[in-house]
Design a protein that fits this description.
Layout: E1 5-12, E2 15-24, H1 29-41, E3 46-57, H2 59-74, E4 78-82, H3 86-94, E5 103-104, H4 107-112
Parallel strand pairs: 2-3, 3-4, 4-5
Antiparallel strand pairs: 1-2
Pfam family, one: STAS
Family: Belongs to the anti-sigma-factor antagonist family.
Keywords: Phosphoprotein
Amino acid sequence: MEPPIEIDHSAVGDWTIVEIRGEVDVYTVPVIKQYMIERLADGHRRFVVDLRAVAFIDSMGLGVLVGALKRVQSVHGELKLVITDANTKQLFALTGLRHVFPIYDSVYQARRTS
């Protein structure tokens, strides 16, 4: 059975926009991790991860995002998140991850803010 997730990416300038749709949980974490590793291997260094279409995120999902951030930072890259769901924003606030990730309301805003 396929994980309940879809991931696509596109390039906008020197940013790689990674759009995740579905659930970010223990079942989909391996897919997301591999996807990000492959983008880094392809030479991408600046990422906006768009989570606006994510219906659910658990602690494993948060962990894969932290892991991706560490990998990106290890190659002197950037990783920003786009989150509009109030519950997801609250999760990042409660876990303290809002202080770890730059979080924006739109891809445009994330790309334009240094």
